[in-house]
Amino acid sequence: MIKLYSFGPYFGLPDASPFVLKTMALLKFAGLRYVEDHSGFGRAPKGKLPFIDDEGTIVADSTFIRLYLEKTYGIDFDAGLTPEQRAAGWAIEKMLEEHYYWLLVQARWIDDGNFARGPAQFFSRAPAILRPLAKALIRKKIARTLMAQGLGRHTDEQLAELGRRDMDALSTLLGDKPYLFGSAPSAVDAVAFAMVTQTLVSELVSPLRDAVASKPNLVAYRDRLLAAYFPSYAAG
């Protein structure tokens, strides 16, 4: 059976990481059984989660996990899509992963209030005497990464505008469809679901959350996928 190395449930969700949640959704879309292991961060091949162990085959990074599942299990997550839809799905995925994700990182880790309500909880297993130093070092590292990536150089108002544009685009593309390309999920839905769901957690107080919450179709999309694939986490 596939073993998925993850962080574990946080904030009323199956996992705190959009990329772990994406991978969980892909596994569920494919109907593949898996077990979770929350002890793998220190052994992560690329220094990040998720990664999987499939009977001894180790695969790191959510995108390469997808490609591995397709090749190994004969799955086409984009079955039924036209070439243009496949291309659009990849473009949407990269907008969310290479742009919007960093806006979410900034909102979670750099804003003091959001950090205290959210990521600060990740350090609960560290010795109490080391927690302040660990938190400060990680936040400093993330701030440097955001500066290098470019988004860390913008004002809060500029960041909010970029996030609104991303979510306006996603909402328009979804429209009134159950999934981004019709009645069945494709690979990009795993990514969109993960980003939308992580943004809507109550611990995040941000224009990003406001932008998603203002789109009834995105909120319904989150609710629909939670109910279908993660029913124990669905809204009551």
Keywords:
single chain; 236 residues; alpha+beta; Glutaredoxin; Glutathione S-transferase Yfyf (Class Pi), Chain A, domain 2; 4 strands; 55% helix
Can you describe this structure?
By secondary structure, this protein is α+β, with helices and mostly antiparallel strands. The protein has two domains: 2-73, Glutaredoxin, CATH 3.40.30; 83-233, Glutathione S-transferase Yfyf (Class Pi), Chain A, domain 2 (Up-down Bundle), CATH 1.20.1050. Helix content is 55%, strand content 7%. It has nine helices and four strands; from the N terminus they run βαβββαααααααα. A four-stranded mixed sheet has the order 2-1-3-4, covered by helices on one side. Helix 1 (18-30) packs across helix 7. 33% of the residues are buried. The mean pLDDT is 96.
Summarize the structure.
The chain is of the alpha+beta class and 236 residues long. The chain contains nine helices and four strands; from the N terminus they run E-H-E-E-E-H-H-H-H-H-H-H-H.
The residue ranges in which pLDDT falls below 50 over 5 or more consecutive positions are none
| Strand/helix succession | EHEEEHHHHHHHH
Compute the CA-based radius of gyration: 18 Å
Describe the strand arrangement of the main beta sheet, using strand numbers: 2-1-3-4
Strand content: 5-15%
The biggest sheet amounts to: 4 strands, mixed
Protein topology:
Elements: E1 2-5, H1 18-30, E2 34-37, E3 51-54, E4 57-60, H2 62-73, H3 83-109, H4 112-117, H5 131-149, H6 156-174, H7 187-199, H8 207-213, H9 216-229
Parallel strand pairs: 1-2
Antiparallel strand pairs: 1-3, 3-4
Helix pairs in contact: 1-2, 1-7, 3-5, 3-6, 3-7, 6-8, 7-9
